[in-house]
Design a protein that fits this description.
Blueprint lengths: L2 H41 L11 H11 L12 E5 L2 E5 L1 H59 L1
Helix pairs in contact: 1-3
Amino acid sequence: MSEDQKKLQALSDDYQKLQTELQSIIEARQKLESQQQENRGVQKVRSFAFAPRSPSEHWGNLMAVIKEFKLLNDGANIYKLVGPVLLKEEKTEAVMAVDGRLEFIDKEIKRVEKQISDTQIQSEKKKMQVFQLQTQMQQQQQSSASQVVG
């Protein structure tokens, strides 16, 4: 294999790795956005327990009570599910916990979006390098072919 072909193979491998990395980062962002939506829902949920059997049922339950959290007064009973046990929690603690999770998730989303942007830029650069090397190799082949014919 010629030196140019080895270089092209290395660039192609690097590009593939960047594309794989980009895909996993995008999936991480999607998970964070899902958590963010869930926590925004929890932020507004009234205090009662529900035990969903599936993610879609969980989302349905969350949407059913999403508007009620703000209606609670400070003395309302709020329960936190810890394993199989419901523990009573103060409204301020519950609100602070949810707000803290949302703040963390928002920061993580921003960090991951920057990582996506950086990886996309690196990927585009590799793609251009591959294209330029392919073009250069084609020109060399055409030049060699015309010298053999001429």
